[in-house]
Amino acid sequence: MVGRRRKSIPSVSTLIAFETAGRLGSFSRAAEELQTSQSAVSRHIAGLEEQIAIRVFERTRAGVRLSEAGNRLYDGVCSGLDTIERAIEEAGAVSDEDRVVVSCSHDAWQLVFMPRLDELRRGFDGYSLVRFWPHAGDPGADPPGLDAHLAFTWDGRGAGAESLALREAVRPVCSPEYAARNAAILDRSVGGWGSLTLLDAPAPERKWASWQDWFELAGRPDTPPRMLEFDTYGEVLLAAAAGQGIALGWRHWIEHYLEGGVLVPLGSEWVERDNFYYGLLTEKGLRRPLARDCLAFMARSIQD
């Protein structure tokens, strides 16, 4: 299969260097294990920190240790690398006829599905036959050149009785430290938010809620807040977790951040919009009973 280049995702070699250095607590020991130079590991880490605009290591006299944001990234990278290793081991064991391919954006893979992998393993007997295919954007129900059976998308064209439709609900979120530091402002109305920093990931022809959409429903600041933009929504949440500002949180996408206390919700309730995130069976999926079973289980898992 031919897919788009994922420009916003660090290279596998960078992620492996980060995982090794984080596990060993040393760039030099990581270089020994990876059979490369310490300077090469340092370049990988420096490039990673520059790409995501977050410091992932704290330098000490004894070596290095993961920062708070680095620890969160480390858990996700380990889970992703484990998934890749398992997929490679299983790739030759299942025929194409018995495999279900799930298409979704990379952000959806990281934020919606990856945190639920253990639940999928326990609850769906056919999990070993399911392959996720994350892509850089949101190409719709049947991405060109991608042999998908399920597609998760904001585009509801083709939605039918067997589709999953999650109503969009949003509310601002930030780190506990940012909330405490700005408690005097956040305790007042949105009109006083002009001195705060809002985090966003602009996208052309976006179908999901923007800050402007939320302001129309919740009220507008008297003066425009500072906007800090990132390439992807995943990077927005990492920046929020690192205390750089306030993100607009989408229900179902930030649950593990809230459950772990990494992010805290602001305001008293979710703001719902007449907009939906869909899970759709493609034409190929409609002909595959396992794809129907997979979609039904995912619907129960996400909505519970």
Strand content is 15-25%
Q: How many individual helices?
A: 13
What global shape is seen? Answer: flat
Low-confidence stretches: 1-5, 139-145
- Mean pLDDT, as a whole number? 83
Helix and strand content put the structural class at alpha/beta
Largest sheet: 7 strands, mixed
Distance from N terminus to C terminus (CA atoms, Å) equals 34 Å
Name the helix and strand elements from N-terminus to C-terminus, one letter apiece.
HHHEEHEHHEEEHHEHEHEHEEHH
Helix content: 40-55%
Please provide the count of β strands.
11
- Radius of gyration equals 21 Å
Structure, described:
The protein has 304 residues and is an alpha/beta fold. It contains 13 helices and 11 strands. The strands form 3 sheets. Strands 3, 4, 5, 6, 9, 10 and 11 form a 7-stranded mixed sheet that branches. The protein is flat.
Summarize the entry for a quick read.
The chain has helices at residues 12-24, 27-34, 38-52, 68-91, 106-113, 117-123, 176-181, 183-186, 211-218, 233-241, 255-259, 283-286, 289-303; strands at 57-60, 63-66, 100-105, 130-135, 150-153, 164-174, 197-200, 226-229, 247-250, 264-265, 271-281. The chain has 13 helices and eleven strands.
Key terms:
304 residues; alpha/beta; seven-stranded mixed beta sheet; two-stranded antiparallel sheet; 13 helices; flat
Tell me the layout of helices and strands.
Blueprint: H1 12-24, H2 27-34, H3 38-52, E1 57-60, E2 63-66, H4 68-91, E3 100-105, H5 106-113, H6 117-123, E4 130-135, E5 150-153, E6 164-174, H7 176-181, H8 183-186, E7 197-200, H9 211-218, E8 226-229, H10 233-241, E9 247-250, H11 255-259, E10 264-265, E11 271-281, H12 283-286, H13 289-303
Parallel strand pairs: 3-4, 3-5, 7-8
Antiparallel strand pairs: 1-2, 5-11, 6-9, 6-10, 6-11
